[in-house]
Description:
Layout: H1 15-24, E1 29-30, H2 31-38, H3 42-54, E2 58-61, E3 71-74, H4 96-108, E4 110-111, H5 113-120, H6 129-141, E5 145-148, E6 152-155, E7 167-168, E8 173-176, E9 181-185
Antiparallel strand pairs: 1-3, 2-3, 4-6, 5-6, 7-8, 8-9
Helix pairs in contact: 1-2, 2-3, 4-5, 5-6
Amino acid sequence: MSRKPVDQQQPSECRQAVWDEIRTCNSPFSVSDIAKSVRLEESTVRDYLTGLMNAGYLKRSGSFRNFSAANFVLINDTGNDAPRVRKDGTPVTMGQGRQQMWNAMQVLKVFTPRDLAFNATTDTHTVAESEAKTYCQALCKAGYLSDRPAAGYMLIPAMWTGPHPPQIQRTKQVYDPNLKKVVWARIEGGAE
Length: 192
C-alpha cells in the first residue's frame, strides 16, 4: 500500500509528530509511549527510532535486549525539524535539490534555470539544469515565480512562504509545506 500524499496526511501520521513528541519527553521513553502519543503503529515508530539511534540522535537507556521494550533518551536535539534519516541512520537526500533551489531563489531574485542549477549545486548534491527548469515551470504555474522572457524567472517576494520548498507531487500538483496545503492543481477535462 502506498503512502498518502503529504497534503492528505494527518499531523500524527508523519515523522515530524514523532520528533515533536520525543523532544517533549523529559524522561526516557519507549516505542509504545511514542506510538500511543502520536497514534501511529509501533512498527512505524520503531523504524524511525532505529534510524535516529543509528544516526546518533538517541541512545538506549537501560539494558533491555528487546528494542520495543527498551527506553530511549534524546542526546542530539537539532531543533524543530525532524531529522530525515533512513533506518540505517544515513540521511535522506531526496528533495535536497529542491531545498537548495528554493534557498538560491531567495538570494538570486532573477534567474534562468541554468543560473539556478549552477547556484544550487553543492559539493554533495548536483542540481541538473533540466531539474531546475521543471521546478521553475511548476512554481510559475503555482504563482510563486513570474516569467520575465528577457531575464528569466523572478521569485515573487510575497510568495516566499517559509524555509521549506514547495513540492511537486506525483499528481502534478504543488504542495506548500510551509502553508500545509495544495497551492496549485492541474485541472484536466471538464465541461466545455
